[in-house]
């Protein structure tokens, strides 16, 4: 056989390996190669995980110059509206402040007026008390007012005074016939001797 016999001093080797001896890599080397490939695969996976998903490019904000200008105009409009809103709020604040000042001024004026009226009432009450404690001087009515004065005396004096001067139960016609001199004596007696209460009742204090 050619395979077992040397040809011209050299051993002949068939270019085709024998089926009994397949050309395979040693198991150890194959295992090493497999581990290396696994390491490369793992390192690649870790690098991919570290880098994360690829970023997606955002589309441009404005597709055209007209759209950009429209956006700018909208921003200007919003700014103007904000300015108008601030102005309106400022106007409301001024109005409220004015109303507050007016209300405080009105309340102050009302308090001062109430204090003035109270002081006047107290002064009037004190004056009336003082007047009631003093004996008033009555003005003597004239002849034409005598009848009315005697009717008033009937309302202010007691029975004793009226009986004394003969006017108790007497009507207006009979009172008109009383002489003025007699009326004058009656009135002077009332002025000098009547109680303070009757004098002030006649005077109307």
From TrEMBL:
Q: Where is the composition biased (Acidic residues)?
A: 36-49
What domain of life does the UniProt record list for this protein's source?
A: Eukaryota
Residue ranges for the region (Disordered) are: 1-144
Return the Basic and acidic residues bias intervals.
Answer: 54-144
Q: Biased composition, Low complexity: where in the chain?
A: 22-33
What's the protein name?
Answer: Uncharacterized protein
Please tell me the species this chain comes from: Alexandrium monilatum
């Amino acid at each position: 056989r050619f395979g077992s016999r040397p040809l011209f001093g050299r051993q002949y080797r068939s270019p085709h390996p024998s089926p009994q001896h397949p050309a395979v890599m040693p198991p150890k080397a194959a295992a090493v190669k497999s581990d290396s490939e696994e390491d490369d695969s793992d390192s690649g996976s870790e690098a991919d995980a570290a880098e994360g998903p690829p970023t997606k490019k955002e589309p441009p904000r404005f597709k055209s110059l007209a759209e950009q200008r429209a956006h700018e105009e909208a921003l200007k409009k919003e700014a103007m509206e904000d300015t108008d809103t601030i102005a309106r709020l400022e106007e409301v604040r001024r109005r409220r402040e004015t109303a507050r000042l007016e209300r405080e001024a009105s309340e102050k004026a009302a308090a001062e007026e109430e204090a003035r009226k109270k002081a006047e009432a107290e002064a009037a009450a004190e004056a009336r008390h003082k007047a009631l404690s003093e004996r008033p001087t009555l003005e003597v009515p004239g002849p034409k007012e005598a009848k009315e004065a005697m009717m008033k005396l009937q309302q202010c004096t007691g029975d004793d005074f009226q009986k004394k001067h003969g006017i108790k139960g007497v009507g207006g016609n009979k009172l008109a016939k009383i002489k003025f001199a007699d009326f004058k004596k009656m009135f002077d007696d009332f002025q000098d001797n009547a109680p303070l209460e009757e004098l002030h009742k006649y005077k109307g204090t």
